[in-house]
Amino acid sequence: MQPNNLTALNFEDIKSSIKSYLRTRNEFSDYDFEGSSLSYLIDILAYNTYYTSFNANMAMNEAFLPSATVRDNVVNVAKLLNYVPRSVVASKGCLKLDVQTSQTAGAYPSSVTLKKGPVSSGGNYIFNILEDITTTVNTTTGLATFDNVMVQEGSVVTFQYVVNTFASQVYKVPSEDADISTLSVRVKPNESSTTSDLYSLTDTITDLTAVTRAYFLSEGEDMRYEVKFGDDTAGRALKDGEVVILEYLVCSGTEANEISSFSFIGTITDNIGNNYAGADVTLTVKEKSQLGSAAETLESIKYNAPRYYSAQYRAVTAQDYALITKKVYANADSVVAYGGDSLTPPIYGKVYIAIKTKTGSLLNDATKKTIAADLRKYAMASIDPVIIDPEEMYLYIKVFGQYDPGTASNTSDIKTNIQNGINDWASQSQINNFNSTFRAQAFEKAVTLSDKSISDVSLQLSVLKYINPNTNQTNTYCIATGADLYDSAPSNSDGTTCKKEPVLLSGPFRTADRPGIDQQFEDDGFGNLRTFYNTGNKKVYTNNAAGTVNYSTGQICFGPINIIGAGNDVPPSGAINITDSTTGSGSVTNPDLLPSGLAIPVLFIPANVSTIPAATPGTIINVINPEVTVVPVGTTPPPTIPLNSLTPQTFVTVPSTITVADISNNGDLTTSSCF
Fold it and tell me: Among candidates 584, 468, 571, 493, which has minimal Cα distance to 533?
């Protein structure tokens, strides 16, 4: 009899299979296996088969990326896909250093240099710079400023190898906690040489020649990275006696995050040779330490490796651009990319990449240009990558919960439970990220389930977006709402025939022709925007054709108009001349004094409050911390459509939102200066 259960891996199944086979033999047809010594031999055979099959099964599982569980095996399979797992990343801080230099022979030095190595200490950690930084000195005051100095936590380590081509050499980074993004690889001709060549990291051989000084990187055993060099065909090969110098940071990863107090411990010298100690240096913390992270997890490697392989180090699809962006810019928390042909009107030849950073801050122009330049290496044909900021859309929700007084009486506890339920909903719904959609039914369900006394829930919902005008420039500004707007029915509430209620309202702003008074804009219900200012309880309209609104598409266009102030950023008296204090009429006298970084909040009512989609692929939906009102059962709730109750002026500054992820964001309208 041939064995017929070859897939049995359980010990008892294997044992039973052996007994079944033996019973087919005449000698054991009526044998009592359990009561005989033969049962011990059967146990031994079953155990041996069990362990053999288990090891064979595990060995096969470890050969495939989805089923592998041992990190070295996962890394080895990912290596076949040319994927290098991310190492531990050093925490980074942003500092400003003001140095008061001293005179020599009656004159201040022309420049000062912040030396490579330790710069500051914070907590129990040391923060470094990896290259010298030089800045000029004010020849009048002797003050020198190092602005936006990015320091990285850790210890600078240098390790050397002498090349021996007759042996099988592996150039390992010996430290497990090395931040590979800081790795510098140099090669000098011999041990006594004082000069060296800098080698650059490469992950493809398409642009390599026989003399290209490049190296390849891979993760080896025990999370220690290995450096490999060319073969004189794809990259220059090393020669006997040359010295390989590896320099990198050994860091603490996430442990060094959230440090906000630093002390200067660095070395600063001027061009004359004078050194400056801590008493001569004023240190200002611009950004607390952040972005430190642990090494890439197994789950992340399994997810990313095949996707990077599918991109084949070229960007063709929008998904390719999104994946490669996360590779070239480590501060990217979430990335979305979409072609310009999907826009209205379409823009051909461009792909737009919106980046949500781990710090929650916006990218500065220099960083955007650097990322775009890195992406062009992978771009196909004449496609131009454009890095943009995410579009922020805020949902302003008022929650009215009715509770049963017979089951609860403490409204404070009910409000707390509702807030906790909303926070749980936010973490499960992936709100505050790209490709998110707000669904009122799920939100209301979370509120209802948050406390057993709640019997009914009603919502008032409006949407908030910002217009960011250019100061003292005549422009038209358009915003997309992502869905159609509420179209109010005609009424005669003020005696006017066929009057319609406004469904959108802006925050205050000032214009070049009326610099002395706050204006706002609203719609007239028929597709036109109009500007006005308030005199007591009366609206005085200044322009009945200040823009257009399409209720069907949600497209709002404001202008042309010249904005010189918005919200609390009003023009100072030295910048304007006011000729009429009542109407605010006047002119701009000194444009250099006008405020910048303007933001005008616009609050509007969507037609369908049950589902709020993102306006564009690059839009992030944020939920403002809701206003919660708790009333007994039987109380009449307010109307669902919040007509005549729009208050965008309360959002002159960015409101606090429901926090889903632990990011460092100060919540103002400024952008990050360092990251």
Answer: 584
Pairing of strands 384-388, 263-264: unpaired
Q: How far apart are CA 646 and CA 501, in angstroms?
A: 12
3-state secondary structure of 490: coil
Residue 52 gets which letter from DSSP? H
Q: How far is it, in rounded angstroms, from Cα 84 to Cα 296?
A: 10
Cis amide bond preceding 560, omega within 30: yes
What pLDDT score does 494 carry?
Answer: 56
CA distance to 79, 181, 183, per residue, from 130 (Å) = 29, 12, 10
Residue ranges in the chain modelled with pLDDT below 50:
1, 661-671
Strands (E), 515-626: 520-523, 528-535, 538-550, 555-566, 576-578, 586-588, 600-604, 611-612, 619-623
Number of Cβ within 10 Å of residue 649's Cβ equals 15
pLDDT of the residue at 668: 37
From the DSSP assignment, how many helices (H) and strands (E) are in the chain? Answer: 8, 36
Q: Is 107 exposed, middle or buried (0-12, 13-18, 19+ CB in 10 A)?
A: exposed
How far is residue 315 from each of residues 311, 325, 351, 398, measured CA to CA in Å? 6, 10, 10, 44
pLDDT (0 to 100) of residue 4: 54
Residue 523 phi/psi, 5-degree rounding, is -95, 160
Predicted local confidence at residue 1, as pLDDT: 46
Neighbours of 472 (CB within 10 A): 17
Chain centroid to Cα 72, Å, comes to 29
Q: Which residue has the tokens 């800081």?
A: 182
Residues near 104 by Cβ (< 8 Å), separated by ≥ 6? 272, 274
Pairwise CA distance, residues 485 & 477, whole Å: 18
Vertex 375 angle, CA 613 and 234, to 5°? 145
CA 155 from centroid of its chain's CA atoms: 27
DSSP H or E stretch at residue 570: none
The DSSP string of 238-292 is P-TT-EEEEEEEE--GGGGTT----EE---EEETTS-EE-GGGEEEEEEEEEE--
Pairing state between β 243-250 and 263-264: unpaired
Whether residue 345 is preceded by a cis peptide bond, meaning omega within 30 degrees of 0, is yes
pLDDT (0 to 100) of residue 675: 64
Q: φ, ψ for residue 132 (rounded to 5)? A: -60, 145
Region of 517 (left: φ > 0; alpha: ψ -120 to 50; beta: rest) is beta
Strand order across the 214-219 sheet: 155-162, 243-250, 178-188, 197-201, 214-219, 225-229, 171-172
Q: Copy the structure tokens of residue 154.
A: 């850790």
CB atoms within 10 A of CB 326: 17
* Residue appearing with tokens 């049963």: 404
CA-closest candidate to residue 552, choices 498, 614, 606: 606
**DSSP letter at 295?**
P
Residue 91 near residue 256 (C-beta atoms within 8 A):
yes
Backbone angles phi, psi at 55, to 5 degrees: -65, -40
Indicate if the alpha-carbon torsion angle 661, 665, 667, 670 is positive or negative: negative
